[in-house]
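Lecture 7 notes: from sequence to structure.
We start with the chain below.
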Amino acid sequence: MPCPSCGVDNIAGSDYCDNCGWDLHQTDIPIPQDAVEELFLHHPVREIVTTQPVTIGPDASMSDGIALLHKHRVRALLVLDEGALVGILTEHDTVRALGVGQSGASMRVAEVMTSAPFTVDSDAPVGLAAKRFLVDSVHHLPVVEGGKILGIVAMGDVLEALIAVLLGETES
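Predicted structure tokens for the same chain:
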């Protein structure tokens, strides 16, 4: 990596320039080359989060969960117990559980939900959420800020933000 002060090429990952001692800590941070990279590297998840997520308690019936998914036209519910995130109930969880012939009335959300779901911090770049979707094979991530639930971000939210950037509908 070239030193911005003297131009000497240093070993990638060096903390200081071997020639002049310049601090290189900030030098290897990627610089966005276009609006898409700007979105993925520098825009925080809080910019695309749904801040009014639909929630349900773990002791609610699956029938109630399904009704909430349908009523609010969402694909995931945050499961809260006394304000604390204990799980996430997704359409996928519902189909998997009810596909074995169970009745939604006889099952509780806690039996079907994904416990201790992966989360993402509100300050994390959008690209980190996108990476989590791929690596962890999830479609929804609860967004936390200061240890509290801020909202939920879905794979579709990232795609929507990406399309807006590609169409020039946002400021980068």
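Points to note: Strands lie at 55-56, 76-81, 84-90, 114-115, 120-121, 140-145, 148-154. The longest helix spans residues 155-166.
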